[in-house]
Amino acid sequence: MKGRIVVLDEVDGRPAAALVVDGRLEDLLIDPAVETLLPGAICRAVADRPVKGQGGIFVKLPDGGSGFLRQISGISPGQRILVQVSGPAEPGKALPVTARLLFKSRFCIITPDAPGLNISRRIKDEDTREALSAIATETMAGATDSLGLILRSAAEGADDDAIAEDIAAMRGLAEAILADLDGPPEVLLDGAGAHDVALRDWLDPEPDEVVTDPGAFVAQGVADLLDILLSPRVSLSGGGHMWVEATRALVAVDVNTGPDTSPAAALKVNIAAARDLARQLRVRGLGGQIVVDFAPMPKRDRAILDQVMKAAFKAETEANLAGWTTLGLYELTRKRDRLPLEARPR
User: Quick check: is 246 in a domain?
Assistant: First the structure.
């Protein structure tokens, strides 16, 4: 299966989306089995009790739900605030929320309290940037000074009217929600489900094919790729492998050379593991603290592995590469932006 293919289907009756590039699963989204607020949902909430030791405050969400906002300054109990769900809830914990709202569409992102116009750096052509800037400036004319705008890379080559309509729609939505602060906890904007996120974020660059037929996961081989993901063992080039296992506290990754015992084997398999680690964490829905036990190698080779890790995680949002511990382990963190694959019954 060659090319870049977006596949929309269902898993256990739940909407699911897969991004497959040259037969390899690059991203995977599956809606949760239980009804819950999806990441991106915006709610009117009521501040509850601060937890100073954790640097945040609990907030009351609709239907008796609870969220945790990592902010205390300027917020007092009983105050009504607008919050956005930033990730899934861990079992027994409150939903993570943020007061920094983003209104995201295919072509743009409206950023309240972050004014200014920014255009994706992936758009290199200066004439195109100037044309997009003119469209944005005209469409945002008269908006409050607190609203900012980011034009996404998908705007390059898109129809001018479509871009203007998209910006206007997002601006109107943002202005309406920002003005709706009075009342009890309420959902003001639903989070995007798997299909909506795929059609919003995965069409740039333009895929070779978007498959929406019933049973598409089986027909396109995605179901087989999912079965492989259910195993913690990941085969690597050269006969090596790594184990990716989630515990309650952290994600543990163990890299092994396999049958190759040559002096260069450790560095070779470690590079292969580092190159694939970001993708493995993404499609498995794993985040939080991650500890990697690379195959033993001379300390002088760590600089090489550092560069490989930086390149592999360059495109990952909110990933922090902490580096080597005194025990020779490699630590990093990644934002929890979806449910772990293991938590999705099949």
Answer: yes
pLDDT 10s digits, 2-12:
899 999 999 99
The predicted-structure confidence for 80-139, as pLDDT tens digits, reads as follows 999 999 999 887 889 999 999 999 999 999 999 999 999 999 999 999 999 999 999 999
CATH number, domain of 310, equals 3.40.630
C-beta separation of 154 from 106 below 8 A: yes
Based on the domain organization, do 93 and 122 belong to the same domain? no
CB 30 within 8 A of CB 344: yes
> In the structure encoding, which two tokens stand for residue 201, read together?
């974020």
> For position 57, which CATH number holds?
2.40.50.140
Indicate if 160 and 243 belong to the same structural domain. Answer: no
Q: Using CB atoms within 10 A of its CB, is residue 151 exposed (0-12), middle (13-18) or buried (19+)?
A: buried
User: How far apart (Å, rounded) are the C-alpha atoms in residues 24 and 1?
Assistant: 9
pLDDT tens track for 298-310: 999 999 999 999 9
Residue count (the chain)? 346
CA atoms within 13 A on the CB side of 228: 11
Decide: residue 259, CB within 10 A, 0-12 exposed, 13-18 middle, 19+ buried. Answer: exposed
CB-CB contact of 70 with 56 (8 Å): yes
On the question of pLDDT at 317 being above 80, the answer is no
Co-location of 147 and 241 in the same domain = no
Whether residues 112 and 89 fall in one domain = no
Question: In the numeric block, which tokens belong to residue 35?
Answer: 């009804």
Strand spans (E) along 147-256: 147-151, 186-189, 209-211, 233-235, 241-246, 251-256
Domain for residue 73, yes or no? yes
The SS3 assignment for 37 reads coil
Q: In this structure, is residue 215 part of a structural domain?
A: yes
Structural domain containing residue 111: 103-181
Using alpha carbons, select from 28, 19, 10 the residue that is nearest to residue 340.
28
Phi, psi of 111 (to 5 degrees): -120, 90
- Evaluate if residue 282 carries a pLDDT over 70: yes
Tokens of 36: 């819950």
Domain match, 61 and 146 both: no
